[in-house]
UniProtKB/TrEMBL annotation:
<keyword id="KW-0964">Secreted</keyword>
<keyword id="KW-0378">Hydrolase</keyword>
<keyword id="KW-0624">Polysaccharide degradation</keyword>
<comment type="function">
    <text>Involved in degradation of plant cell walls. Hydrolyzes the feruloyl-arabinose ester bond in arabinoxylans, and the feruloyl-galactose ester bond in pectin. Active against paranitrophenyl-acetate, methyl ferulate and wheat arabinoxylan.</text>
</comment>
<dbReference type="InterPro" id="IPR043595">
    <property type="entry name" value="FaeB/C/D"/>
</dbReference>
<dbReference type="InterPro" id="IPR029058">
    <property type="entry name" value="AB_hydrolase_fold"/>
</dbReference>
<keyword id="KW-0732">Signal</keyword>
<dbReference type="GO" id="GO:0030600">
    <property type="term" value="F:feruloyl esterase activity"/>
</dbReference>
<keyword id="KW-0449">Lipoprotein</keyword>
<feature type="signal peptide">
    <location>
        <begin position="1"/>
        <end position="19"/>
    </location>
</feature>
<keyword id="KW-0858">Xylan degradation</keyword>
<protein>
    <submittedName>
        <fullName>Putative esterase lipoprotein LPQC</fullName>
    </submittedName>
</protein>
<dbReference type="GO" id="GO:0045493">
    <property type="term" value="P:xylan catabolic process"/>
</dbReference>
<dbReference type="GO" id="GO:0005576">
    <property type="term" value="C:extracellular region"/>
</dbReference>
<keyword id="KW-0119">Carbohydrate metabolism</keyword>
<comment type="similarity">
    <text>Belongs to the faeC family.</text>
</comment>
Length: 259
């Protein structure tokens, strides 16, 4: 019993030492690249942590993500280990299968697991703009089991073929997006931005859940699909190209059953 206790203690000490090397604005190195992370408030130092892997928008870095007022807040700040890889030259290689950034992000998660105990049943992947495109690419081809794909104002072509699928897919897009135009389907189909996942995950008919608000000044129209292999949710709003207040933390909270 004493030997087992000492072994567990040494393991915890090792994790703590590795974790202390980087956090917040101090990047963690993975080869010649890096990422940032934020430990949730009030973590007990022992319990396995859900993870949110977030791909930043074009021209940004993970140092912004871990202090972002629309990402690192609410259920994310309170309950989730936020992991933010740094794209090369502020960008991501998402356009074709076999992305170098999929391999990089997998290496990032492996490095995180050396520093912190992670809950592998609750790994979330999110992204904004080109980062959302990369989040789709990562989930599409990564070997990581993803509990939820949370994409903001970005997708891949709906004609892509994906080897993998998340347990839940949640997408938000603005009809007035002037940067990455809303991917309207044939005949003005506003559900087309998630057509790939609806087919891949074996979804039935969509159910309109009506209007909802995270903040009073922006209204979402939600459609939900229950699927053979999970669930797909699409939130559409009349605005443009931005991360809506509280949207990412709310999705994390709902999937984790905290909300």
């Amino acid at each position: 019993m004493t030997r087992l206790f000492l072994s567990a203690l040494l393991c915890l000490v090792g994790l703590s030492a590795a974790a202390a090397e980087c956090a917040g604005q101090t990047p963690c190195a993975v080869g010649d690249r890096s990422y940032h992370l934020r430990v949730p408030d009030g973590w007990d130092g022992v319990s396995p942590l859900p993870v949110l892997l977030h791909f930043h928008g074009w021209g940004r870095q993970g140092s912004l993500t871990v202090r972002h007022g629309r990402i690192a807040v609410g259920y994310v700040a309170e309950h989730v280990l936020l992991v933010a890889p740094n794209g090369l030259n502020g960008s991501w290689a998402f356009r074709r299968p076999g992305s170098r950034d999929t391999d990089f992000a997998e290496a990032v998660l492996a490095d995180v697991a050396k520093r912190y105990p992670i809950d592998r049943q609750n790994i979330f992947v999110s992204g904004y703009s080109w980062g959302a495109n990369m989040a789709w690419r990562f989930v599409c081809e990564s070997r990581v089991a993803v509990a939820g794909l949370l994409a903001v104002s970005g997708t891949l072509s709906q004609r892509e073929t994906c080897a993998r699928a998340p347990r839940e897919m949640r997408q938000v897009f603005g009809l007035g997006d002037g940067v990455l135009a809303f991917p309207m389907g044939p005949g003005g189909d506003q559900t087309y931005p998630v057509a790939l996942w609806r087919q891949r995950m074996g979804c039935g008919e969509g159910v309109s859940e009506g209007a909802w608000n995270a903040r009073p000044f922006l209204t979402f129209e939600r459609t939900r699909w229950d699927c053979a292999d999970g669930k797909v949710v699409l939130d559409v709003h009349p605005g443009g190209h931005f991360i809506p207040h509280d949207w990412i933390p709310i999705q994390v909270g709902e999937i984790l059953g905290l909300r």
